[in-house]
Design the sequence.
């Protein structure tokens, strides 16, 4: 493509952040012929030992990037999504996944280990862009742009120059704050526990291969298998006035976890009792609004930088994966960079806001104080049909960009 002022050229895209969203975007852009440089603040690559869910809307992209089969082989394809009451395990609703999900949407539903997923994306980025595609230990101060390109400034005094900058630098995004102004973070009232239990420690036939959501007054928990069933991932969300840091690596005493789920179903007690006492993580959840102005003429944002979502719809990573390929398609569809970035944001803001709002609504539903009201709500809803209709059915590779 021609390389004139203000036009999209198959030259250089700078990406701030080597997380899941940044790497997926890097792979999509490189497949389209762009030269990409990724800059990561951390001194080494790595992801936390948490579970992640990848429904068809994300798997379409990962299949396109050439990593879908690899991810599927190291994941679990759950039979169903199951909603249960916290004390008795009474099932309020379920909808089919696995074969049904693939039949409807032409892509699998995978439950993966977050670190495994990240490693697959790193390997693919290196395959596409070479060993030097990712530069580590680079703390970003901000950026400057002009008619000819954009310059990324680092705290060590170095700079990087490109035609376009993509901020995939997470909830505390430096790039977003420069584009939009600082976005306020408001404590949600929830803290989230995370533990992993090796499956061979569990009693025989402990839990079917399902995504189990346990719901009760002021809190809920999810449990599901990852890494080919080798690990049971447990996440517990509790309402609390005790605000701690916004960090996935903050450890809390096991005794507090045990107390938070006192009186819950024996299966929940078994999971907690089998957890390594010094490997219980808890972080506070903060909410940020979805921003409307994602871009300048030469810079844009994606993933949590643009639309951080609470983990109550299991779509945070999927939205970031969608973003990267829609951005790539917008750059291919428009000849002007500014017009491409407008097209990208215009086609992402409403969808990601709907996911954020849906996650917020689930938080209220899952934590209802009145169990009879919770029963009534589920009796009058078709959770599977609702999600299949608009969430899982979305294909970012083929949806019309307007």
Sequence:
């Amino acid at each position: 493509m021609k390389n004139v002022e203000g036009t999209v050229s198959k030259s250089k895209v700078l990406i701030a952040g080597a997380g899941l969203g940044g790497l997926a975007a890097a792979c999509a852009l490189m497949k389209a012929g762009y030269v990409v440089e990724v800059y990561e603040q951390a001194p080494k690559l790595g992801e936390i030992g948490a579970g992640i869910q990848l429904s068809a809307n994300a798997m379409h992209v990962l299949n396109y990037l050439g990593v879908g089969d690899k991810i599927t082989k190291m994941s679990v394809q759950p039979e169903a999504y199951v909603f249960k009451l916290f004390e008795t395990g009474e099932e309020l609703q379920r909808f089919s996944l696995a074969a049904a999900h693939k039949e409807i949407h032409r892509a699998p539903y995978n439950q993966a280990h977050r670190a495994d997923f990240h490693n697959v994306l790193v390997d693919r980025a290196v395959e596409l862009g070479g060993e030097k595609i990712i530069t580590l230990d680079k703390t970003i101060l901000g950026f400057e742009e002009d008619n000819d390109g954009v310059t990324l400034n680092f705290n060590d005094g170095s700079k990087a120059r490109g035609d376009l900058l993509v901020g995939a630098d997470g909830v505390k995004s430096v790039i977003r704050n420069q584009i939009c102004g600082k976005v306020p973070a408001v404590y949600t009232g929830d803290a989230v526990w995370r533990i992993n239990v090796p499956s061979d420690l569990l009693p025989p036939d402990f839990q079917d291969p399902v995504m189990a959501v346990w719901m009760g007054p002021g809190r809920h928990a999810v449990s599901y298998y990852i890494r080919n069933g080798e690990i049971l991932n447990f996440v517990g969300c509790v309402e609390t006035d005790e605000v701690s840091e916004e960090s996935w690596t903050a450890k809390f005493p096991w005794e507090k976890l045990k107390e938070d789920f006192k009186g819950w179903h024996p299966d929940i007690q078994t999971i907690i009792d089998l957890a390594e006492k010094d490997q219980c993580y808890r972080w506070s959840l903060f909410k940020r609004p979805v921003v409307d102005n994602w871009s300048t003429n030469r810079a844009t944002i994606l993933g949590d930088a643009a639309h951080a979502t609470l983990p109550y719809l299991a779509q945070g990573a999927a939205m970031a994966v969608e973003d990267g390929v829609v951005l790539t398609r917008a750059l291919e569809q428009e000849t002007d960079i500014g017009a491409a970035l407008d097209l990208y944001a215009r086609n992402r803001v409403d969808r990601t806001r709907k996911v954020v709002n849906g996650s917020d609504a689930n938080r209220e539903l899952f934590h209802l104080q009145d169990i009879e009201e919770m029963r009534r709500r589920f009796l009058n809803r078709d959770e599977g049909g609702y999600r299949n209709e608009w969430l899982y059915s979305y294909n970012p590779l083929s949806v019309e960009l307007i």
Observations:
- Confidence is low (pLDDT under 50) at residues 1-5.
- The radius of gyration is 21 Å.
- Residues 316-333 form the longest helix (18 residues).
